[in-house]
TrEMBL record:
This is 5'-deoxynucleotidase. Transmembrane segments: none annotated. The keyword Nucleus does not apply. Its cofactor is Co(2+); Mn(2+). It comes from the Bacteria. It catalyses: a 2'-deoxyribonucleoside 5'-phosphate + H2O = a 2'-deoxyribonucleoside + phosphate.
Amino acid sequence: MADETINARGTAGYLLEMGMLKRAKRTGWWIAGVKDPESIAEHSFRVGIIGAVLAMMEGADPAKVALMCLFHDTQETRVGDIPHIGRRYVEAASNEKVTADQVSAAHPAVAAGVQRVVEEYENGDSLEVVVAHDADKLECLVQAVEYREQGCANVQNWIDTSVAKLKTASAQALAEAALNMSSIEWQKTYLA
């Protein structure tokens, strides 16, 4: 088989594996009593949007932040979404190692690119990395606000933890605003 065919199959396999993120649920929400929690893909999508918005507000590169946000949980196809409390008892491979395994058969440029994005997210200290991490925490907070609105009373810890970990002024301001709004407040402008 030609190298390009092998690389195409390996890359396509990686893309198919990423489809699992649409089916895999975020397990921490089950601890809070959410019966049908968001998928990892749903979480990652909004983290990417939040990351781009925060980057614009903070003067960081929105495309770079959105890319980091998009890949920040892709390893969970192999290790699952280990809830925070579970991490006390389970030692999982690093996200960098899982990513290297995931893309090992992909096109070399894809493998190098994905590994570089994950490595930077996990170990970097640039403004883009800080913003990407804030986006992850802010998405968790926004999701908790939505679940609280739906009647799940056990989400306050997720809100408090997320607020405490935010580093940028923009993320802190957005968190404060989100905590004082309903999830459908955005449409009031159009209904008036």
